[in-house]
Amino acid sequence: MQKIWTNSGDSHFLEPDDLWTTRLPKALADLTPKSEKDPDGEYETVSVDGQTFRRKLPTSAAVEFLAETRKAVGIRDAKARLIDLDEEGVWGEVIFPSLGMWSSTFRTPELLKACMRASNEWALEELVPVSERYVVTAQVSTLLVEDAISEIEWAAENGFKAVFLPTTPHPSAPDWHDPAWEPFWDAAERARMVLAVHIGTDPVDVTSGGAGVVYRGPGGAVMNYAETTFSGQRFAMKLVASGALDRHPDLRVLISEGGATWIPFLGDRMLEGYRQHSMVVRPKLKRDPKETLMTQVYASFQHDETAVAAHDAMGYKNVMFGSDYPHMEGTFGHTQDTLKQLFDGASDATRLRITQGAFFELFPHVPAVPSSGV
Fold it and tell me: What InterPro entries does UniProt report for this protein, alphabetically (predicted)?
C-alpha cells in the first residue's frame, strides 16, 4: 500500500542531561533532578528540589527494548530526527520535553522559573530553527500564576505556538479550576497558544515508593499504566466545569497520549451532572459542557482501535493520531502498519481528519504535507 502520511500530536525529545545544571547558578543547579543507582542495579534514588524517592529500574527485557528504541536517530539529534519521521510517514509533530516532565514536582518557584526559561531558550537555539514541521512546546512555571503569565507571553513573542502544562500543578499551587488561573487563560487565548497537556505528569508522590506507582501486586503494571490516563481527563474536566473554556471560546486544549474515546463519555457524564444537579451547579455556563469538551478539547492516541469509532460513530471530530516517538508505548518502527490497521475500512475523509486535519486546525503554520510525499 501507499504510505499513509500523518501528523503527530505527541512526541518527545531528549535534551542534554546537563541542560539545567550548565545554565543555572550553582545554588539552583544543585536542586535539579539527579539519580543514583544502587550497586545491584535494581533500584535508583532520585532527588529533586530537596525531595528524595526511590524507584525500581527497568527489567532486562525493558532495557533491551529501550536499547532498540534508542536506535531512533532523532531522539537527541533534531536534524537526524527528520530521517526517522520521513521513514515512519510522520510529517508535523508536537514535541514535548523530557526534563520538563519533572516540572510539577518542583516546589521552589525561583528554581522552576529558571529551569523553564533555560529549557525554552535551549529549544529556540536547538530545536525550533531546524524544521517548520516541529511544534515545540514552550514550558512555564506553574508554581506562581504570575510566573506562568510572564513566561507564556515571552514564549508567544518568541514564536512558540503551544505550551506544555502538567496534568496537575504542584499541591502548593492553585489547581487548574481555581479562579487564580483566569489571567493565565486570558494570556493564552490572546496569544492563540494551544494548551498541550501530556498524561502522566502529576506531581510525584514521594511517599508512594516511586513515580507512577499507585498499585502494587497482581495487575499492578497494567493498572498503573491505565492510571496515567485519568489525570488528563481530569484536566479537561476542570477547565470545562469551571467555565474557563466557556469564558475563552478561542482557547484550545490538546490532551496527548490519553486516547480519544473518553471525550464523548465524559461529555455525557458532565452534561447529566450539569442538568440533573443544576440547582447547585456553579458557575452557570453559556454552552453545555459536552459541546465545549467536544469542540475545544483535542485528544491524541496511538494504538486505540476505538479512536476511529469515536470520530465516526460518536461524533467527536477532534481525534488526532500521535506516534509518541520514540517511547515504548509509541509506534516507532511500525507506524505504517499501525495506521493501515487503524484505517482499514475507514473513509478517506475520516483518515485525513484524524491523521492531518485536526492537527492543522491547531497548528495552521505548519506547512502542508507534500502531495507526492517525501
Answer: ACMSD, Amidohydro-rel, Metal_Hydrolase
> Nearest 5°: CA angle at 307, between 301 and 312?
145
Cα angle value 290/266/183 (rounded, 5°) = 65
Residue of 189, 197, 100, 183 lying closest to 144 (CA atoms): 183
Report yes or no on whether pTM surpasses 0.70. Answer: yes
Alpha-carbon dihedral sign for residues 61, 67, 68, 74: positive
How many CA atoms does the CB half-sphere of 5 hold within 13 Å?
Answer: 13
Grid coordinates given for 148: 506562568
The single-letter code of the amino acid at 130 is: V
Concatenating the DSSP letter of every residue in 199-224 gives SS-SPP-TTTTSTT----STTHHHHH
Half-sphere exposure of 133 (CA within 13 A, CB side): 23
pLDDT in tens, 62-101: 545 554 655 677 889 999 999 999 999 999 999 999 988 8
| CATH 3.20.20.140 at 6-19+75-362, yes or no | yes
